[in-house]
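User: Can you recover a sequence for this backbone? Please restate the input before giving your answer.

Assistant: Of course. Working from this structure:
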């Protein structure tokens, strides 16, 4: 068997990657997590989690810290590094970051997803100056001011509700007349007096004064009527895009870029697994990312045992 720097390299330290590290290191595999930012993934951008077993409610960053401690307790290592590419050499793989290269028997991809952009005028220009993709990070800047949220999924409705503690009002603008969000989140938002829904409406342009956001131009899809809503902030939650650019050459994604795995988290390349939001799957949640991570950590052990035979 080829001698490698590590048995397992996990790329990304959100809930999926951290759980894979826990399982792989507890199986006595020499395990490295490579993370390009702060460990925790999307948990760091989530105010309150109330659907993760064991906690009635917990702040996202607190859960991230607990998961990180758990992931490290059996000797896994963690290094800062943005993975640029992975090369498959059969019984070993090369993982390249900007500064360093590593060899490993198993790669577990846990790079998650990023927020989709609307691609409308003003969005990029006013990013960080009123346009935001993270209520937890930026909500407090808009105390007592009107806020607009775009989207109709769990993120828009849950984060829109969270934003009512800061904003004078929150308008949730959705392109249909029915939300995609979980029923419990919908009911909570419908009961909140600070939230107004703007149905069947799409955003056309973020407006500003050159310094900051001042409004948004909208269009009603059925009537074609355009309107301008004054607002200090536009929070955009219109879905996710997979982070799979570094793995393009491996040919393991579907047409939209999500990684295809079987139910053991194995991709079509032996020794390369994927877990969490980056996978082609129907439910992207902390609990499902954690389940994927546990499975892949164990499968890494099984795969390496079979290599040794
Ligand atoms: P992520 O958490 O996205 O972590 C991926 C990690 O990979 C990141 O740390 C990233 O920096 C790293 N990475 C990416 N590319 C590279 C690279 N090239 N090299 C090195 N590192 C890299 N789910 C719930 O169950 N309950 C909730 O209440 C909830 N609230 C949410 C609120 C919002 C606003 C959003 C967007 C999502 C929410 N979710 C919630 C979904 C949940 O956060 C995700 O399903 C979960 O975080 C996915 O975990 P993951 O490990 O797959 O990916
Ligand atoms: P999502 O479920 O994909 O919803 C995206 C929303 O944006 C949809 O309502 C969609 O409209 C709308 N949209 C898409 N493109 C648009 C465009 N160009 N213009 C206007 N609107 C557009 O994404 P998400 O809400 O970010 O959720 C992502 C994942 O995270 C999901 O798996 C979700 O369950 C999970 N999550 C979970 C929680 C929780 O459990 N508490 C919280 C947040 C997120 P249509 O409905 O018409 O398609």
């Amino acid at each position: 068997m080829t001698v490698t720097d590590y048995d397992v390299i996990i790329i990304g330290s959100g809930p999926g990657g951290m759980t894979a590290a826990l399982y792989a290191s507890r199986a006595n595999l020499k395990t490295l997590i490579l993370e390009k930012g702060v460990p925790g993934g999307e948990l760091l951008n989530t105010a309150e989690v109330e659907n993760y077993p064991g906690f009635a409610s917990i702040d996202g960053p607190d859960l991230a810290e607990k998961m990180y401690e758990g992931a490290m307790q059996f000797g896994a290592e963690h290094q800062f590094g943005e993975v640029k590419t992975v090369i498959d050499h059969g019984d070993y793989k090369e993982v390249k970051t900007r500064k360093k290269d590593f060899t490993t028997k198993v790669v577990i991809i846990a790079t998650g997803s990023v927020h989709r952009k609307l691609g409308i005028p003003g969005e990029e220009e006013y990013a960080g100056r009123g346009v935001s993709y993270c209520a937890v990070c930026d909500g407090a800047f808009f105390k007592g001011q009107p806020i607009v949220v775009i989207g109709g999924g769990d993120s828009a409705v849950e984060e829109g509700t969270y934003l009512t503690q800061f904003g004078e009002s929150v308008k949730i603008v959705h392109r249909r007349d029915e939300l995609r969000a979980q029923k419990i989140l919908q009911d909570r938002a419908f009961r909140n007096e600070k939230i107004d829904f703007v149905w069947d409406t799409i955003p056309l342009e973020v407006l500003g004064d050159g310094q900051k956001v001042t409004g948004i131009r909208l269009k009603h899809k059925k009537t074609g009527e355009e309107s301008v809503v004054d607002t200090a902030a536009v929070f955009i939650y219109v879905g996710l895009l997979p982070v799979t650019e570094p793995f393009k050459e491996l040919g393991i994604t579907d047409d939209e870029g999500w990684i295809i795995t079987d139910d053991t988290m194995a991709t079509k390349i032996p020794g390369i697994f994927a877990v969490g939001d980056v996978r082609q799957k129907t439910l992207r949640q902390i609990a499902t990312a954690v389940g994927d991570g546990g499975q892949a950590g164990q499968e890494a052990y099984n795969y390496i045992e079979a290599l040794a035979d």
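That completes the design. The chain is about 25% helix and 30% strand.
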